[in-house]
Amino acid sequence: MKTVRHSEHTLRTALISKNPALVSQYEKLEAGERRLMNEAFQPASDLFGPITVHSQSDWITSHPEPPQDFEEFFSDPYRKTPSPEKCSIYIQCIGHILKFLKKKKPEDAFCVVGITMIDLYPRDSWNFVFGQASLTDGVGIFSFARYGSDFYSSRYKGQVKTLQEKSSHDYSVFDNYYIPEVTSVLLLRSCKTLTHEIGHTFGVRHCQWLACLMQGSNHLEEADRRPLYLCPICLRKLQCAIGFNIRERYKALVRWIDEESSGTPGVTPKHSREDNVNLPKPVEAFKEWKEWIIKCLAVVQN
């Protein structure tokens, strides 16, 4: 295993910048928010740790790309930001990909994210990907296909061998398609990928600074190692993009976990497409994340 460590100076610059205007912007944040974000460059921090690379197949090794610090994010001329007219995020169940989403994008949508049970392969030379997004078009997609615990053991094989022209309303090709049980682990994995792809639509690129939700992942083991939270550098990017109070945001996330966690079963029964979507929300796998949020709130509110 290899650990990717950056110096305190490098992380401080990536977060705060040397640009006087951006430094001033940072200093105007609430003291508690700065205290939390400053954990990025504290060597003894138990909230944010370094990236670990476990094999040559991990994303950061197999897909080298330049890191994006806050200043580069802020100055990106192609970065999209929400507006009062375009402030909604739509989640669309589909069997097609980004071009479909772009055509179907509502006028008030900041972005549209598709979800599918089909494996995603952006290029013939690539391994599968869990998700994909277009930063400029405000569309993204991610797949549940490999998140079910029985995906590999079921030896499921797709039925579509050749390209077929279908009406956008014809979903017959997906009849009897693999549907996983909705478990706590599947929900956790799906939340990671969905929020990662939505992060891209706000202009946040793959993180190479600290362990972070915005790290790339090349396989399921690596995706499971990736945390559900943003590192301080990416957190500042998202806060800049949409504007929020970190304390209130983290409190809302704890409420989201607590609202339906009491008495929720660990696994829901297998179901068909005709079943209602009002399924219980299994959140057992979110326990560690909740404990992490509570630690962060203690720092912000101190």
From TrEMBL:
The gene is AMZ2. Keywords: Hydrolase, Metal-binding, Metalloprotease, Protease, Zinc. SUPFAM superfamilies: Metalloproteases ('zincins'), catalytic domain (SSF55486). Its cofactor is Zn(2+). Gene3D superfamilies: Collagenase (Catalytic Domain). GO terms for biological process: proteolysis. GO terms for molecular function: metal ion binding; metallopeptidase activity. It holds the Pfam family Peptidase_M54. This is Archaemetzincin-2. Probable zinc metalloprotease. InterPro entries: Archaemetzincin, MetalloPept_cat_dom_sf, Pept_M54_archaemetzincn. Belongs to the peptidase M54 family.
